[in-house]
């Protein structure tokens, strides 16, 4: 976890004690994604950072409402 945090792939958890950090479901999902990209996808850490940054981007196409969707 700390390695992924140092590499900028994973946000820090919430410190619950001086030597303990709590991680939520979002962290678990992110670690699964990181491991899939690195191990299954064969991506480098640098390429994984690019994918994560694209997924997190505020202006990512999938974050915009689709013009083809109809409202009811």
From TrEMBL:
Q: Which superkingdom? A: Bacteria
GO terms (molecular function) for this protein are: DNA binding
Question: Which GO biological process entries does UniProt record here?
Answer: regulation of DNA-templated transcription
Q: List the PROSITE patterns.
A: HTH_MERR_2
Stretch forming the signal peptide = none
Where in the numbering of this chain does the HTH merR-type domain appear? 1-54
Q: Which SUPFAM superfamilies match?
A: Putative DNA-binding domain
Q: Which InterPro entries match?
A: DNA-bd_dom_put_sf (IPR009061), MerR-type_HTH_dom (IPR000551)
Instruction: List the protein's name.
Output: HTH merR-type domain-containing protein
- What species is this protein from? Polymorphospora rubra
Source taxonomy lineage? Bacteria, Bacillati, Actinomycetota, Actinomycetes, Micromonosporales
């Amino acid at each position: 976890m700390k390695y992924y945090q140092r590499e900028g792939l994973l946000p820090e958890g919430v410190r619950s004690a001086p030597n303990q950090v709590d991680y939520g479901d979002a962290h678990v999902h992110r670690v699964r994604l990181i491991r899939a990209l690195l191990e299954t996808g064969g991506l480098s850490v640098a390429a994984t950072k690019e994918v994560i940054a694209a997924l997190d981007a505020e202006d990512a196409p999938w974050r915009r409402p689709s013009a083809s969707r109809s409202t009811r």
